[in-house]
């Protein structure tokens, strides 16, 4: 594992700054550009290296549904993007990164295909395919009969978390999650983590609606929602929480620390994604590892298959792994 010092050297900042950024220290005033360098350095240092130069000088577009600022608040998507860029580098492709609000800058005649990261409405899918008919979707499958997609089985991942909590004798289990909106729409996308948490907990006769809090996928909302839970539930606060992203879980840890609630002695917490900063939390964050690097690599390889003539659409589900660290009792 890369050390704080390794990250600091790569990002060109002090070890103290790296430590505070990776722990989402709210009192630290640092430019977004510096944060971005640190996060990207942490991700890149965790990647294995491969070499192969097969597609020299071919250009593809990476299109992100987030803005650049939103990506900094949810490192899940940033790490997928870096996985794509790393694989392109290995095979000699040239990736150009666009956020959806500037796709009009894409020169369609210059690109071989598109990798679209995130969630896209039907109208946006049409906009993308009008630029280039070869589009690979990552973390979303708008139409598995037509488009290639790289996805995660969040239903299985959620059940892994609940099964672990049950195996360690927790019965009062809470959920802190997020909602996502397609651009221009008001109805949130159904989140499989929240839906599965509700149904699976009901199967075990343990579901409590008052233990469920939902906001956005951000550190700030994780912090605010956990504070709300602490204030509203008091001594009835669950002994375990599943946070539906690491960003949310990081905010939850900070709220629990501020309230002097012992982790994991009083409250255990598990996130999902295993972004690189999870290892640097205190206590280190237990999480479902989502292989974002593999998602990115697979998207590039799937695009290459299309360029080489494959016509049939593929939907590829990448497995996950429960990583037990210090934020849970065993």
CATH topology term of the largest domain = Rossmann fold
Radius of gyration: 20 Å
Q: What order do the strands of the largest sheet run in, or round the barrel if closed?
A: 2-1-3-4-5-11
CATH class division of the largest domain? Alpha Beta
- Mean pLDDT, rounded to whole units? 89
Shape: globular
Give the helix/strand class: alpha/beta
Taken together, the total number of domains comes to 3
CATH superfamily of the largest domain: Response regulator
Counted by DSSP, the helix tally is: 11
What is the quaternary state of this protein? Answer: single chain
Which percent bin holds the helix content? 40-55%
N-C termini distance: 23 Å
Strand fraction = 15-25%
Largest sheet, in brief, is: 6 strands, parallel
Unreliable residue runs: 48-52
Describe the structure.
The protein is an alpha/beta fold. The chain folds into three domains: 1-46, lambda repressor-like DNA-binding domains (434 Repressor (Amino-terminal Domain), Orthogonal Bundle), CATH 1.10.260.40; 50-151 and 291-318, Rossmann fold; 154-290, Rossmann fold. The protein contains eleven helices and twelve strands. The strands form two sheets. The protein has a six-stranded parallel β-sheet with strand order 2-1-3-4-5-11, covered by helices on one side. The protein has a six-stranded mixed β-sheet with strand order 7-6-8-9-10-12, with helices on both faces. Strand 3 (114-117), helix 6 (122-131) and strand 4 form a beta-alpha-beta unit. Helix 3 crosses helix 5 (75-91) and helix 5 crosses helix 11 (292-307). The protein is globular, with a radius of gyration of 20 Å. The two termini are 23 Å apart. The model is unreliable at 48-52 (pLDDT under 50).
